[in-house]
Design a protein that fits this description.
mainly alpha, 3-stranded antiparallel β-sheet, flat
């Protein structure tokens, strides 16, 4: 039986390591306890349920990436937000189902606050109101998290042969991602939708960059206040 003292951060780190093997659906307190060589009830001293554990896991993810999420010092707001969202995507992609774990969780400490403060400061200094800055940052974050959820659900997934992706039976998302040939065959009466598969389910890096550029440009046009420095 393990003698190393359990604490929330240690449990969260082990859970993140195990996540890469099991995925979110297979991650259980019992499996984590086995990995830690303790009895499952010992974990309930630290986490009342799985959601509490996910909150700590998301917080641990941020702790390890806080400096990158703060963006680029002394950069313009567009560069800073873009750099931070790239860092957020990299952070989420380090873990199987990382975006699902991160989405909708409540942070257990203020590790996230310094990066958020840095981004909001750059936005407000560029002329955004506080409310508009918050909306701009939330829009970019929502795009990034949502993109990675789909990327991890429909892209190449080890051990996922035969599993269906987010779009159901249109093309099974296996070890190589969607079978686009099978998808195109099913959609032969819808040529534009069939052709869109290559853009939607391949080239995730380029797709992310194109979408992020559109988001950053869009918040600049719609949310930056009058009289501010040109976008």
């Amino acid at each position: 039986m393990a003698t190393t003292r359990l604490d929330r951060r240690r449990v969260a780190r082990v859970a993140l390591d195990l996540l890469n093997e099991t995925g979110l659906d297979g991650l259980t307190l019992r499996a984590i306890a086995k990995e830690l060589d303790v009895k499952a009830p010992a974990l309930y001293w630290h986490f009342k349920d799985k959601q509490a554990l996910l909150d700590e896991m998301a917080t641990e993810m941020v702790r390890g990436a806080a400096a990158d999420l703060a963006g680029t010092p002394d950069a313009d707001w567009q560069t800073s937000v873009t750099t931070a969202m790239r860092a957020l995507r990299r952070m989420l992609l380090r873990y199987r189902d990382g975006a699902k774990v991160y989405s909708g969780t409540y942070f257990t400490d203020t590790s996230y606050a310094a990066p958020v403060e840095a981004q909001l400061r750059r936005l407000t200094e560029a002329g955004f109101t506080t409310g508009a800055a918050a909306r701009a940052l939330m829009t970019a974050m929502s795009y990034t998290i949502g993109y990675v959820i789909e990327e991890q659900a429909t892209g190449p997934r080890p051990g996922a042969e035969g599993a269906e992706g987010a779009a159901g039976a249109e093309g099974a998302a296996g070890s190589e991602g969607y079978d686009l040939v099978a998808r195109a065959e099913r959609l032969k009466d819808y040529p534009l939708t069939a052709a869109a598969g290559e853009e939607m389910f391949r080239g995730y890096e380029d797709g992310f960059e194109a979408g992020l550029a559109a988001v950053v440009a869009g918040v600049g046009v719609t949310l930056l206040g009058p009289g501010a420095r040109p976008v």
